[in-house]
Design a protein that fits this description.
The protein has 111 residues and is α+β, with helices and mostly antiparallel strands. The protein contains 2 helices and 5 strands; from the N terminus they run ββαβββα. The chain has a domain of 75 residues: Beta-grasp domain (Ubiquitin-like (UB roll), Roll), CATH 3.10.20.30. A 5-stranded mixed beta sheet has the order 2-1-5-3-4, with helices on one face. The termini are far apart.
Length: 111
């Protein structure tokens, strides 16, 4: 192994908007160092990383977690709405007019 680790940092700044960058960092670099190296302001201006959660390949990571070669560091925003509440609201708006996933589509196979 060399003296550098190569990591991919991904951040969803808004719905349907994803930023991705590949970084070469010194061996032993941490999540906080990778976040700083991106230059992205991913939180409030006074503390750019206050509301951001970090995970490596989907597993929660602290700012002091050491990165390894090939890691995918994911920065996520806090949820604005509970997914269960959002689903209920969507269903209330659309009503019971369709069977959702089980609705028959034109040209679909019959059971």
């Amino acid at each position: 192994m060399g003296d550098d680790v190569r990591v991919t940092v991904v951040w969803a700044s808004a719905p349907r908007t994803v930023h991705e960058v590949v970084l070469e960092l010194p061996d032993g670099a941490t999540v906080a160092q990778a976040m700083a190296r991106t230059g992205w302001v991913v939180g409030p201006v006074d503390d750019p990383h206050a509301d951001v959660a970090a995970s490596i390949w989907g597993r929660r990571a602290s700012p002091t977690t050491a990165l390894r070669d090939g890691d995918r560091l994911e920065l996520t925003r806090p949820l604005r709405v509970d997914p269960k509440v959002a689903r209920r609201q969507r269903f209330a708006r659309q009503g019971a007019r369709a069977a959702g996933l089980f609705a028959r589509r034109p040209g679909g196979r019959s059971p």
